[in-house]
């Protein structure tokens, strides 16, 4: 009995890519990467700014809730790229409740805000804290967030500190 085999062509066709095709594809990929690089840089900067803004927002809300829970004065402060929340029951001997660093070299204006036992800033004080990127200036592409605390105790994180934060 004869075995049936598919007939193979006498000359095999080459499979895969030629060097020229590979170099053209690599060139196109490189051009796309160069075109996307500025957008990626802005994305990273905005991400890092927002991350630190959310961090300060969370720590401010934590300080406010601890002031209500403890029925005493709790301070949130930013100094030297560190966020510190402390219990100020005894002003001469404050207890640090939480310390969190600002990351990725992001800076924020130094500020101090005390929340009273009712959750409002002591003396109805207000606070405006803006963030900045170490190497990029804030613009419509680089959105530097800003934290706003009003005298009634409302805490808001604005997407862009150059705006009105409404």
From TrEMBL:
Domain General secretion pathway GspH, by residue range, is 54-122
- Protein name (Swiss-Prot/TrEMBL): Type II secretion system protein H
Q: Which family does it belong to?
A: Belongs to the GSP H family.
Gene3D superfamilies in the record, alphabetically?
A: Glycoprotein, Type 4 Pilin
Q: What are the record's GO terms for cellular component? A: plasma membrane; type II protein secretion system complex
Species annotation: Rubrivivax albus
Q: How does it sit in the membrane?
A: Single-pass membrane protein
Q: Does the keyword Cell membrane apply?
A: yes
Q: Which InterPro entries match?
A: N_methyl_site, Pilin-like, T2SS_GspH
Matching SUPFAM superfamilies, A to Z? Pili subunits
The GO biological-process annotations, alphabetized, read as: protein secretion by the type II secretion system
User: Entry's Pfam families?
Assistant: GspH (PF12019), N_methyl (PF07963)
Name its cellular compartments. Answer: Cell inner membrane
Transmembrane stretches, start-end? 20-40
Q: Which UniProt keywords apply?
A: Cell inner membrane, Cell membrane, Membrane, Methylation, Transmembrane, Transmembrane helix
């Amino acid at each position: 009995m004869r075995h049936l085999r598919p007939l193979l062509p006498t000359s095999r066709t080459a499979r895969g890519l030629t060097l020229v095709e590979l170099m053209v594809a690599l060139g196109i990929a490189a051009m796309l990467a160069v075109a996307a690089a500025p957008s990626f840089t802005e994305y990273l900067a905005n991400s890092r700014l927002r991350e630190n803004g959310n961090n300060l927002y969370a720590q401010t809300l934590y300080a406010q809730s601890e002031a209500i829970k403890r029925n005493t004065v709790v301070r949130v402060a930013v100094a030297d790229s560190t966020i510190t929340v402390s219990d100020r029951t005894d002003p001469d001997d404050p207890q640090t409740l939480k310390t969190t660093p600002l990351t990725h070299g992001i800076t924020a204006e130094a500020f101090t805000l005390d929340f009273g036992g009712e959750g409002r800033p002591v003396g109805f004080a207000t606070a405006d804290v803006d963030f900045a990127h170490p190497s990029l200036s804030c613009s419509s592409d680089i959105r530097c967030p800003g934290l706003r605390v009003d005298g009634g105790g409302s805490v808001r994180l604005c997407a862009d500190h150059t705006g009105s934060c409404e």
